[in-house]
Design goal:
27% strand; 28 strands; UDP N-Acetylglucosamine Acyltransferase, domain 1; 263 residues
């Protein structure tokens, strides 16, 4: 089945549309866009820049994808682009910006994510698969988000932060530091409030794994010794637990920002 394009929509010459694509009333697709099969662009959706929408993406009214990075002095470049993974849904008034060439040029969103209404991901972000970003959440430039991370509503994430796999960021949080995998953070400014146990259970992690993560968490954030000493003790004690070592490796690789810590 060929693409279905509403008479009031604009699809510029050069745009590539796959099969069974729907372009709604007054939607716009720019000349450098690549839209794969089974994508739905609802009325007044806008796809500009060098944007790739993989199969089954759905874009709701008022969303703008592929806009240039909000960087002072930016000049249009063929290296600046946006890639959105298969099955991702962007609800009303989502904005995703293309990357900045001096930092690789790519903003990348994974598969089966849900961006709720009025959400934003800035230039050079990398968002993993199956993430949920609730209404009015804004993610700054160069942020790295792991797999299956959940954001509550009205979250603000400072540029360059890293958020590990399966973490949870509570509604209204202002995040200025890195979040360990499986962590749960809340507040302004956000602090580590424990593990995302609810998310771990929902995703089928075993009781044994959750117990190990809890034990490792208590060891890592105990009051005795220095943080570096506790980190190495945790690595030694849980060397055979992949999920704990994921936290250890995440902390060891921290470069740009401090870590969210418990109060």
């Amino acid at each position: 089945m060929t693409a279905t394009i509403h008479p009031t929509a604009v699809v510029e010459s050069g745009a590539e549309l796959g099969t069974n694509v729907t372009v709604g009333a007054m939607a716009y697709v720019g000349p450098d866009a690549v839209v794969h099969d089974n994508v739905t662009l609802h009325p007044k959706a806008t796809v500009i820049g060098r944007t790739l929408l993989n199969e089954g993406v759905e874009v709701f009214p008022g969303s703008v994808l592929g806009g240039p990075p909000q960087v002072l002095g930016y000049r249009d470049s063929a290296e600046s682009r946006l890639e959105v993974g298969a099955g991702t849904v962007m609800r009303e008034h989502t904005t995703l910006h293309a990357g900045s060439p001096e930092h690789g040029g790519v903003t990348k969103v994974g598969e089966e994510c849900l961006f709720m209404a009025h959400t934003h991901a800035a230039h050079d972000c990398v968002v993993g698969n199956k993430c949920v970003i609730a209404n009015n959440t804004h993610i700054g430039g160069h942020v790295t988000v792991g797999e299956q991370v959940w954001f509550g509503g009205a979250v603000a994430v400072h540029q360059w932060c890293r958020i590990g796999d399966h973490a949870f960021v509570g509604g209204g949080s202002i995040l200025v530091a890195d979040v360990i995998p499986f962590g749960s953070v809340v507040g302004n400014h956000a602090h580590l409030a424990g593990l995302n146990v609810v998310g771990l259970k929902r995703r089928g992690f075993s009781r044994e794994t959750i117990r190990s993560l809890r034990s490792a968490y208590r060891m890592l954030y105990a009051k005795e010794g220095t943080f570096s000493e506790r980190l190495e003790d945790t690595a030694a004690a849980f060397a055979e637990t992949a999920e704990v070592m994921q936290i250890v490796d995440f902390i060891r690789s921290s470069k740009n920002r401090a870590l969210c810590l418990p109060r």
